Amino acid sequence: MKLVLRPFSPANLVPHLRPVFGIRNYATQNSAGSTGSPGPSGSSGGPKRKAITPFSDTGFVPWKELSAAEKASRATQQSFNFGVVVLGVVMTGGVAYFLYQDVFSPDSKTAYFNRAVDRIKKDPQCLALLGESSKIIAHGEETSNRWRRARPLA
After folding, report:
1. Helix (H, G, I), strand (E, B) or coil at 31
2. Whole-number Å distance between alpha carbons of 90 and 92
């Protein structure tokens, strides 16, 4: 039995695969029979697109194809989105500022409290009255929150 080998080349596959790639199993907007490209409002015989409003704009229609009202609508939407982002950045900065001022700043109440506790743990008179410094625990002010007071310790 004689084995016949043919040389392989990608060009040999192209005629066999062409019918597979040429068949479309999906719908398209521009079929082969349509003429012209649709304008901003679809006036050249192509399919009409929906009008753009601040709530329905997805950004897929190019700027040059928009009417004046649609451009105003898109600008309004983009300005609102920018405002939301700026508001988020400002609020995040505000939270970071207050967190720094109340917790991490050297002049914060927390820093003063921690320095006072450290001084108490180092003072010999306080140690004589309160005991070893490792057993001294500082909790801060009592809270007026009833839920915190009623919480079990364990």
Report:
1. coil
2. 5
